[in-house]
Amino acid sequence: MGKLVSKSWQESKLLWHIAFPAILTAVFQFSIGFVTVGFVGHIGQVELAAVTVVENVIEGFAYGVLHTC
């Protein structure tokens, strides 16, 4: 049983070495849009509305292109 736990722990560490940078990348990609909207929100309501619409359109195109490949 101890050997199984040891092997599982080693495999878990290897997986986290791969997964952790991917998780950070996803979080940082989300935060770019979040920070952009936060900054533009201080400029005005019309500008904020424009940025949110454009971000949604660009994200829609990006996801569409991702799924066609």
From TrEMBL:
One of its GO terms (molecular function) is antiporter activity. The chain crosses the membrane at residues 14-40. GO terms for cellular component: membrane. It holds the Pfam family MatE. Keywords: Membrane, Transmembrane, Transmembrane helix. Belongs to the multi antimicrobial extrusion (MATE) (TC 2.A.66.1) family. This is Uncharacterized protein. It comes from Oryza sativa subsp. indica (Rice).
